[in-house]
Amino acid sequence: DVPKIPDSCGDSDGPRRGSLCDRHCAAINNVQGDLGDLGCHLHCPRVPPATSTPSCCQQHSEEVCESCVVKTTLTAENAVEANKLSNNYKFGFKKWKSHVTARPWEDRSEIVKELYSDLNVIRGSGGSTLTCGNVLYLLLFGWWLSLLYILVAAVMFITVMGAPYGQLCWDLAGYFLWPFGKVIQKVQVPKSHQACEAGVGESSALLGGPTPRRWHPRCWVGTGYWHHASTAVWLCLGYPVLVLAHGLVCVTAWLLIVLIPVAKLSARATSRVLLLPPERVLIRRLRMTEVPLEGEVILCCYRAANPYYYKYAVDGINVFAVNLLPLVLVTLVLGYMDSPNHLTGSIVKFTLALLSIMPLSYYIGMAIASISAQSNFAVGAVVNATFGSITELTFYITALIKGSREGNRCYAEVVKSALTGTLVGCVLFVPGLCMVIGGIRHQEQRFNSRSAGVSSALLFLSVGGVFAPTLFSKVYGKLICGECHNVTQNPLGHYLCHNCHFDLMDNNGTLYYSHVQPLVYTVSILLPAAYLIGLFFTLKTHTHIYDIHISDCHMPGHHHSAVVHWSRWQALVILLLSTLCMSACADLATEHISPILTNSTISQYFIGVTVLAMVPELPEIVNGIQFALQNNLSLSIEIGNCIAVQVCMLQIPILVLFTIFYPTNFTLIFSDLHVYASMFSVVLMNYIFMDGKCDYFQGTVLVMVYFILLAVYFFAPSPSGC
């Protein structure tokens, strides 16, 4: 939300023309840079006008110049943010967009400052209050809240002793019907009896007109008995009803996110306005040309809705993740307390468990980013390698355990479909969607093709290694068909066969146990080794590929120490609790997926490659979209590539290792559809990323190919064993 710093290269009078190098300088704004939210910008070589220092193009060839201008210097607000920002560009580290430290208030934009305001600031000119959001408030809350205040006011007047609070509720009924452009102030009670008779009859240039008369107990009874009795009646009959109503409004408005100002309005009214003595509450309508009145402003609201509240965060946690956290509790309570499915069915519990994975993935991601940013490289690498794939592995392992206990091979096939769906989705859908959304704001986006090439090479290696046992089985396996029919009615003619597969268990499984299984174990050892070599290559010996440099100097005005949202221990506790809840939700999802697999008319292939594969990756997709909108497509592409590489080089070997200690039906033999879809996706992705630049059209191609593959999975027959 920080305003972007304009970048410029070359001379002050505009980019030079003529050479290829100068055109690279003119286009340097398209090179990746984590702008805006991270407060970072690019530094380009500039030549002062008064000097005659030869330019980069005069000193070096065009190829050398191209390599030197794309170097990116990133300036962070503090050392922790700089470490987190640097981790985003490291291979194998989780890419995280949000801040892990509290941003200084003075550096935030006016839009973001308004999100965190307490609705007690009077503006000079609020503009028209007749907006769509205000009308929506009137339709959803205003009319019945005002009617409730009128009913409470009637009850208070009937009790006689609560008459002062009845007058207050009558005034608040008009306020909550349309609170926009009105102000509630806390005023001082006049000490003289004349003030009681005149009723605080002061006039204000801000609010205009005399103060409306309100019943004052002191004017009626000289002692304080009446005041205490009136307060007791109010706290017993009026206040609890209004607290429940405002609580309902607060929760509903908070869940709608864009109506969070209404939630703040209700919360502040409950905690401040309704607990004040009636004679100290002053309600007036504002006028645009008036000056502020002396006295404390309790409530002053102009807008009921604000579309920028998707940026709102509570202790560094995005409001969406905060709102979805109660869903996790509901899922766990409903799943384990209602085992016989008396309250809800399996489909509802499966859906809730799957939706609960999304906020838990967010908390796990932020905890990993917080720990990595506050630790050294070794600790960060261990945490990322250990917990980076915990979301997917938790679900896969629980599904395999359930399938093994029930003797159902369908769970293993669903896990293979989910693995393939994650691979295809992260190679096609994630970068394609980021290209489309980022291309709406930026005509052409550039990225570091060298760093993308490293991930692509590892992806080629990993896909080849994962599908090597499958290809081996098709070459040496025995083709077995369920039924065959002679098409030509000639014994020597053509036969049409159904339900064919390659049998690896012929001759007591000699082919599988003597050849295929050792190959699977060999691949499961080589793939993690290749992953470690990739880490060493990109993070130690060839760090210059990424050309990332964190400046020693912080942004102007940043001389304070970093205030982290979560300390290392706090992040570790949240990480462990989120992992535990993730395991419980994955157990519930696998427990209630069986009716969906057996009774659904949709192919199990489609369920695996869509719902089970992409729902846990939604936080990563959101991160990629945010990077693309900030013209940082390199990180958007790396998000998809890193997930795909981790699927092949870490998740699958771990599943194979798990089957050694806990025998399951999982074997590293994939169907033809999985093999062809994965290989075609990787080839297409490398072709698109070859030139180091892209636009929304290329992103559309990737997304369309992904949807075509989904259609193929949708119409494909269910795998054998399901």
From TrEMBL:
<feature type="transmembrane region" description="Helical">
    <location>
        <begin position="232"/>
        <end position="262"/>
    </location>
</feature>
<dbReference type="GO" id="GO:0015369">
    <property type="term" value="F:calcium:proton antiporter activity"/>
</dbReference>
<feature type="transmembrane region" description="Helical">
    <location>
        <begin position="343"/>
        <end position="365"/>
    </location>
</feature>
<dbReference type="InterPro" id="IPR005185">
    <property type="entry name" value="YccF"/>
</dbReference>
<protein>
    <submittedName>
        <fullName>VNX1 protein</fullName>
    </submittedName>
</protein>
<keyword id="KW-0406">Ion transport</keyword>
<keyword id="KW-0472">Membrane</keyword>
<keyword id="KW-0812">Transmembrane</keyword>
<keyword id="KW-0597">Phosphoprotein</keyword>
<dbReference type="GO" id="GO:0006874">
    <property type="term" value="P:intracellular calcium ion homeostasis"/>
</dbReference>
<keyword id="KW-1133">Transmembrane helix</keyword>
<dbReference type="Pfam" id="PF03733">
    <property type="entry name" value="YccF"/>
</dbReference>
<keyword id="KW-0109">Calcium transport</keyword>
<dbReference type="InterPro" id="IPR004713">
    <property type="entry name" value="CaH_exchang"/>
</dbReference>
<feature type="transmembrane region" description="Helical">
    <location>
        <begin position="418"/>
        <end position="440"/>
    </location>
</feature>
<feature type="transmembrane region" description="Helical">
    <location>
        <begin position="317"/>
        <end position="337"/>
    </location>
</feature>
<dbReference type="InterPro" id="IPR004837">
    <property type="entry name" value="NaCa_Exmemb"/>
</dbReference>
<feature type="transmembrane region" description="Helical">
    <location>
        <begin position="377"/>
        <end position="398"/>
    </location>
</feature>
<keyword id="KW-0106">Calcium</keyword>
<feature type="transmembrane region" description="Helical">
    <location>
        <begin position="519"/>
        <end position="539"/>
    </location>
</feature>
<feature type="domain" description="Sodium/calcium exchanger membrane region">
    <location>
        <begin position="571"/>
        <end position="713"/>
    </location>
</feature>
<dbReference type="Pfam" id="PF01699">
    <property type="entry name" value="Na_Ca_ex"/>
</dbReference>
<dbReference type="GO" id="GO:0005774">
    <property type="term" value="C:vacuolar membrane"/>
</dbReference>
<feature type="domain" description="Sodium/calcium exchanger membrane region">
    <location>
        <begin position="347"/>
        <end position="467"/>
    </location>
</feature>
<feature type="domain" description="Inner membrane component">
    <location>
        <begin position="132"/>
        <end position="182"/>
    </location>
</feature>
<feature type="transmembrane region" description="Helical">
    <location>
        <begin position="668"/>
        <end position="689"/>
    </location>
</feature>
<dbReference type="InterPro" id="IPR044880">
    <property type="entry name" value="NCX_ion-bd_dom_sf"/>
</dbReference>
<feature type="transmembrane region" description="Helical">
    <location>
        <begin position="452"/>
        <end position="472"/>
    </location>
</feature>
<keyword id="KW-0813">Transport</keyword>
<feature type="transmembrane region" description="Helical">
    <location>
        <begin position="135"/>
        <end position="158"/>
    </location>
</feature>
<keyword id="KW-0050">Antiport</keyword>
<feature type="transmembrane region" description="Helical">
    <location>
        <begin position="696"/>
        <end position="716"/>
    </location>
</feature>
<feature type="transmembrane region" description="Helical">
    <location>
        <begin position="643"/>
        <end position="662"/>
    </location>
</feature>
<dbReference type="GO" id="GO:0012505">
    <property type="term" value="C:endomembrane system"/>
</dbReference>
